[in-house]
Amino acid sequence: MRVAAGICLLLAAVLNLFGALGYLGGGAATTGLSHLGEIAVEEAAKQGDIPMTEAEQAQVDIIAGAGKGIGGLLMAMGIFLLVSAGVLIAGAVFLFSSTHWKFIFAAGVVSIAAEMFGILLTTFGLMNVIGLVGGVLAVIVALDLAKGAVPTTS
Predict the structure, then answer these.
(1) Could you give the CA distance from residue 26 to residue 29 in angstroms, rounded to a whole number?
(2) Model confidence over 5-14: pLDDT tens digits?
(3) DSSP string of 75-121?
(4) Is 52 within a domain?
(5) Range of 56's domain?
(6) Cα-trace Rg, the chain
(7) Which residue from 62, 105, 142, 146 puts its CA 20 to 30 A from 131's CA?
(8) What are the pLDDT digits (tens) for 81-109?
(9) What domain count does the chain have?
(10) Does some domain include residue 75?
(11) pLDDT higher than threshold 90 for residue 34
(12) Arithmetic mean of pLDDT over the chain
């Protein structure tokens, strides 16, 4: 069971690395395009010699703020996935050696949390199952190690 958990955590770590790149890129693009749109609207108003009313300026600010907020959320998720990839790799190594049960437990919780956040931001898919199963198995193995019983690999 510990080997299966370790393999699942390693696969989840690789998937989290690719997911992190996607979230970081998407967040940066969302933030940048939001800022670019805000500048474009202001320039269009200046060139048209028609000043924007305060209500129009407020609408532009609300839309730009929402875009920047969403972009920041996506980039935060990307950073979390980058950190989680390192934690999952270390947790898998400790699973293979049956040591550091507290870290294995933490890696399992991080794996489950990463998948849940991903499901909340996007949708549930087959790739989420790997992280969820790996996290649950890691928690079970960690609790067995804490009791002093080392599970067999068969």
Answers:
(1) 5
(2) 999 999 999 9
(3) HHHHHHHHHHHHHHHHHHHHHHHT--HHHHHHHHHHHHHHHHHHHHH
(4) yes
(5) 2-147
(6) 22
(7) 146
(8) 999 999 999 999 999 998 899 999 999 99
(9) 1
(10) yes
(11) no
(12) 88
